[in-house]
Design goal:
This protein has 816 residues and is α+β, with helices and mostly antiparallel strands. It has 27 helices and twelve strands. Strands 1, 2, 5, 6 and 7 form a five-stranded antiparallel β-sheet that branches. Strands 8, 9, 10, 11 and 12 form a five-stranded antiparallel β-sheet that branches. The model is unreliable at 1-11, 589-594 and 807-816 (pLDDT under 50).
Length: 816
């Protein structure tokens, strides 16, 4: 036989030492090690296209450029402010490089190396440029440039090396950089007639390291202060990019954790007092509740990657659910004191009679939460495990501490409890078979409504991935609107253990996309291929050049130069390049230095599995065009992975369909087994399960009425409610084994109402979070708990009346 937890256990010194040690360790972990993570990849499934997005997020999300958007009414002021911001950021410790103009690689000594960086269209124009007519046309334009008033000695020098301006041809068309931002080589990133301008910076360090993200944001704030100090007014300066988004996400999550946890405590306390009607009981319940939450937070601090955006909801849920145990323990203490037991004996009695049902209820709820461990989303797994652990830890803390505090508070015998009048109304409504049938039909009505009306529509499964409240994401939208591009781009990943092979495959994708962009089959793309193609790609392109037999065209170039009035001696280097074209692959000077290093970081990364090269494609979202683009990409690189936040919607819906069934089945099975063991009756276990069916249907109706849509995060809370809300039915059915249903309702009705409302308060606190996914999760949880309470209070007495007769709830022989 299991020995009751409370018989002399708490006064033992070793138990006090353990509690103190665990509390001290949890406090240290909470304040020293607890951190939240801005890594949104924890919200994604780790399979299919979504797995590719997770890999991209972890490899590239840490290196995304910081984009500063400046806007004003006067272009001259915007330009001056941009120059000031760029100057400050170039001296900032958090910034590796700054680019306020599109890169313009210096021409090499051999201008025929232009073929190494030319895509299909540029190669065609290069071939035209080295014909006799093409040479004369380009030389006429070169002569005009040299005669222009702005021409200087530097321009004269490079035009002498490359009088045909061959090296300009790969970049003469607009070059696309991050997120489709276009600019001609050497030009500033401007829009709206110069009233909007971008400054692009390459941050140092990972965006997922809080100190790095904070440093970038602070340095941009210093740049804004420098603009104001220079007397440049009327300029708005805004920041977006990976570091800004990560920092804003972390601040939002910290705010949500603090607000939801505090609000949950306040709302649960108010619900407790309103239903339990004994304010002093809060003094006995809140300290162990805080203690159990602290222990759970200590466990959360051990998560290696920090708390995810969904997992931070554990605190509010644990507080709301944890009060349940306190309600039943303190009620048992009051009952023992009314029976004449001394405060100490009453504390031991309360612990002895409640430890088994409360721990069983906590275990059922904890297992229901832990069933989320079968989910394919890491963030949801963390939420389930933390809530499950918190449910058990708070129950243990309350069993240990609440009776001791209560024995001190209840020195005087409490007065008899005043009867709850609403219980008499409920008994009257379910006291006869006819009324019981009517009550059951009313509770079952939502099942029929859902069958006719249908389940709530599935909303965007990505609702929690891009929090609408984040200012850097709003800035990103403004950049799209001003400079072109659009959200929802595809991310095409070419991977290989060897970096050059991966880059070669990405170059092939870029060549396949170029004609599609010209035909407007896609809105555009940006690739590293134009600025830094792989050595293999460069050699292949130079082979195209060599097929033109440039040495045979040297004399044609010489004649064209002479006819156009150029000095042949000054252009001797260009003539020698035609006679002896370079055969080696070439990297433009500074390509791996400060000028283009951020472009390399945006497109090339490495992880444990090898090199990853990303190409960013903006589809036009026409099914036929998108299908053509996918086919072209996979034809160029059959091993490429096409992903993106919009592209993984199907993957998330698949996860929702699979996990909802799996998690629901596990939770329902465990709850059924627990009910059978606790109630020792098949019929009464079936009654408890019937309350769940009514609850689920009521949730469906409420979501339809309130306009709450299903998505992958709020849908998965529904199976968890099986374990959380079954408590109400279990306590009512357990009490009905020992007495009449009327007495059971009077004894347990107010208590289960208190526990349900405090649980609902915990979920409801999440509605005030700024994170979209948590708000919906909290709304569904709160609605579900209230629906479960109403179902239990009506279905249990009505069903027992029909099954066992009006007065047979106390007949122990009815157990099966």
């Amino acid at each position: 036989m299991v020995r009751p937890l409370g018989r002399g256990a708490w006064p033992r010194a070793w138990l006090r030492v353990v509690v103190v040690a665990v509390t001290v360790a949890s406090t240290w972990l909470t304040f020293d090690r607890l951190r939240v993570s801005g890594d949104l990849s924890t919200l994604l499934p780790e399979s299919g296209d979504a797995a590719a997005l997770v890999r991209w997020t972890r490899a590239f999300g840490v290196r995304e450029p910081a984009i500063v958007l400046l806007r004003g009414d006067r272009p001259a002021d915007v330009e001056a402010a941009a120059d000031r911001v760029a100057a400050v950021l170039r001296g900032a410790a958090s910034i590796a490089s700054v680019m306020d103009r599109a890169p313009a690689p210096d021409p090499p000594s051999d201008p025929t190396l232009a073929w190494a960086f030319a895509g299909p269209e540029a190669r065609a124009r290069l071939a035209e440029a080295v014909t006799a007519e093409g040479m004369r046309a380009r030389l006429r334009d070169t002569r005009a440039l040299l005669l222009a008033p702005a021409a200087g000695s530097e321009a004269e020098a490079w035009l002498a090396r490359d009088p045909l301006r061959l090296f300009q041809i790969p970049w003469e068309a607009r070059a696309e950089l991050a997120a489709g931002v276009p600019a001609a080589a050497g030009a500033a990133f401007t829009a709206d007639g110069g009233r909007a301008r971008l400054v692009i910076a390459e941050p140092r360090g990972s965006a997922f390291v809080s100190s790095n993200a904070e440093a970038v944001v602070e340095d941009v704030e210093r740049a804004k202060a420098a603009v104001a100090a220079a007397g440049i007014s009327g300029i708005t300066i805004e920041l977006t990019g990976g570091h800004a988004i990560a920092w804003a996400t972390e601040q939002m999550m910290r705010r949500d954790l603090e607000v939801s946890g505090t609000l949950s405590l306040v709302l649960a306390s108010l619900a407790f007092v309103a239903t339990f009607r004994r304010v002093r009981a809060l003094v006995a319940v809140l300290p162990p509740l805080v203690l159990g939450t602290l222990w759970t937070t200590g466990l959360a601090a051990l998560l290696p990657s920090g708390l995810s955006a969904v997992a931070i909801g554990f605190a509010a849920v644990v507080v709301g659910v944890g009060v349940d145990t306190g309600v039943h323990v303190y009620a048992a203490l009051l009952e023992a004191r009314r029976a004449g037991l001394s405060p100490g004996d009453a504390a031991r009695r309360a612990r002895a009679v409640t430890w088994q049902p409360t721990l069983m209820a906590a275990a059922v709820a904890a297992v229901a939460f832990a069933s989320l461990a079968f989910c394919g989303l890491k963030a949801v797994r963390e939420l389930g495990l933390l809530c499950g652990a918190g449910e058990l830890l708070t129950a243990i803390a309350i069993l240990l501490v609440t009776p001791e505090i209560g024995s001190w508070l209840e020195r005087a015998a409490p007065p008899p409890p005043s009867p709850a009048r609403w219980v008499d109304v409920l008994v009257s409504l379910t006291g006869t078979r006819a009324r019981a049938w009517i009550a059951l039909l009313v509770c079952a009505a939502p099942i029929a409504v859902v069958a006719v009306w249908g389940w709530p529509r599935a909303g965007s499964a990505l609702v929690a991935l891009r929090p609408r409240a984040l200012e850097p994401l709003a800035v990103q939208e403004r950049v799209y609107a001003l400079f072109g591009g659009q959200p929802g781009q595809w991310i095409v990943l070419s991977t290989d253990p060897d970096e050059d092979r991966a880059r070669t495959r990405a170059d092939a994708i870029a060549e396949a996309l170029e004609p599609l962009a010209r035909a407007r089959t896609i809105d555009g793309y940006d690739s590293l291929s134009t600025f830094l193609p792989s050595e293999e790609t460069q050699r292949a392109r130079l082979a195209v050049r060599d097929a033109l037999d440039l040495p045979s065209r040297r004399s044609t170039l010489e004649s064209a130069l002479r006819e156009s009035g150029f000095d042949l001696d000054a252009c001797a280097g260009a003539l020698d390049a035609f006679a002896h074209p370079s055969a080696r692959a070439f990297a433009p000077p500074g390509a791996l230095g400060t000028t283009l290093s951020w472009l390399t970081a945006r497109h090339v990364a490495k992880d444990a599995r090898g090199a990853i090269v990303a190409t960013y494609v903006r589809p036009v979202r026409t099914p036929s065009d998108d299908a053509r683009v996918r086919a072209a990409i996979l034809a160029a690189d059959p091993g490429a992975a096409i992903t993106g936040f919009e592209a993984i919607d199907a993957a998330l819906r698949a996860v929702l369909g699979r996990d909802l069934v799996l998690v629901g089945a596990v939770a329902l099975l465990l709850v059924t087994l627990a009910m059978r063991l606790v109630l020792r009756s098949v019929r009464r276990a079936f009654v408890a399960l019937a309350t769940l069916a009514c609850e689920v249907a009521a949730v469906g109706v409420a979501m339809n009425v309130l306009g709450i849509h299903w998505h992958v995060y709020d849908a998965l809370v529904l199976p968890v409610l099986f374990g959380v809300t079954i408590d109400e039915s279990m306590f009512l059915l357990h009490a009905a084994r020992e007495t009449t249903m009327r007495a059971a309702l009077h004894a347990q009705g107010p208590l289960v109402t208190a526990t349900a409302l405090t649980t609902a308060a915990g979920f409801f606190a999440l509605v005030f979070c700024r994170f979209d996914g948590l708000r919906d999760l909290g709304a569904v949880g709160a609605v579900g708990v209230v629906a479960g309470l109403v179902s239990a209070l009506v279905v249990v007495p009505a069903a027992l009346c029909i099954i066992e007769g009006a007065d047979k709830g106390s007949d122990k022989r009815t157990s099966v």
